[in-house]
Amino acid sequence: MAYVTLDSKKLEENYKFLDQKFKERNISWAPVTKLLCGNTLLMKEVLKHKPKEVCDARLSNLVLVKELDPSIETVYIKPPAKEIIEDVVRYADASLNSSYTTIKEISKEAKKQGKTHHIIIMIELGDLREGIMGERLLDFYSKVFELPHIKVTGLGANLNCLYGVMPSEDKLIQLSLYKQLLEAKFNVEIPWVTGGTSVVMPLLMNNRLPKGINHFRVGETLYFGADLVGGTTFEGMHNDVFKLYAQVIEITEKPKVPIGNMEANPSGETYEIDESEYGLTAERMILDVGLLDLSTDFVKPVEKGLTISGASSDMLVIELGDEAKKYKVGDFVEFEMKYMGALRLFNSDYIEKRVI
């Protein structure tokens, strides 16, 4: 049976690495836990490092955080849908928002629950996902400022999430200036400018982060040590906190070219035959994991000489090259993965999760 592991020691070292980098610059930060898909075993591994706050885009995951440690502040990191506002106020201490209509409903619900809900106003910086346009900010804030049981504690932005627009010093300075504008105009204090995400980490590491950015929300770099600009791993961090192990259920030498009339497969893919491979054979393994659980674009065999040939809903086919060691039925093949690969695997109920 296929399973995924979390290496507790490597996660700890990644966490401490980031925590030290942020402390050196007097920056607050929160781990983003949506990758863990609400798995209690894995969530405990993050929470044992005692983060002050945790960010997640799934409300049920924040419910779990509160159950495991009520003292941790929880942040819902996407604009809430109307139907879940009651629970957002109940289980999230803060939420990211870009709609006055939604914030008004949050205000009403917070009054019912006798709470003050913290709001981070999201501002559009060019990637065209959530966020109000900068020229509307003063009018937007003036209306939010009047709502009871609401406290604006930060301004935020997301980049690179939709169209791949990269962060820059100019964009982040712009975000910081919005905070200064609001504070001067309305005589208020807004503690946080949460412009930092994993894709902003290279600016911080290269000492190019504008001073006004004082809060980060970090997922991918925490779990994968990822430099999302350079496409590498930050020195001193681990990229293999998570690994996939899939079991061999068949090994057979087969033709390299399919035999018969060909159309699109169930995934809508069409296979182009390489005529130079006619008459050739290769040893192929079938593993007990498939497209229901993973995306082949985001996982890679650790051992040299193994190539992913394709996958169906429940099985993965691997071709063994000359460099590959000898496998037998029942052996496990080890895979490294990228963020989106891990996300699919953790979201699958069919894949066992283990901590090592």
Describe the structure in your own words.
The protein has 356 residues and is α/β, with parallel strands linked by helices. It has two domains: 7-233, Alpha-Beta Barrel (TIM Barrel); 242-355, Elongation Factor Tu (Ef-tu), domain 3, CATH 2.40.30. 28% of the residues lie in helices and 25% in strands. It contains ten helices and 18 strands. The strands form four sheets. Strands 1, 12, 13, 14, 15, 16, 17 and 18 form an eight-stranded mixed β-sheet that branches. Strands 3-4-5-6-7-8 form a six-stranded parallel β-sheet. A two-stranded parallel ribbon has the order 2-9. Helix 4 (85-91) packs across helix 5 (100-113) and helix 6 packs across helix 7. The longest helix is centred in the middle third of the chain and has 18 residues, at 169-186. The mean pLDDT is 95.
Features:
356 residues, TIM Barrel, Elongation Factor Tu (Ef-tu), domain 3, 8-stranded mixed β-sheet, 6-stranded parallel β-sheet, Alanine/ornithine racemase family PLP-dependent enzyme, Ala_racemase, alanine racemase activity, pyridoxal phosphate, PLP-binding_barrel
Beta-strand content:
25-35%
What is the domain tally? 2
- Shape label: elongated
CATH topology of the largest domain: TIM Barrel
Q: Supply the CATH class of the largest domain.
A: Alpha Beta
Q: In angstroms, what separates the terminal alpha carbons?
A: 17 Å
Q: Radius of gyration over alpha carbons?
A: 24 Å
Report the strand count: 18
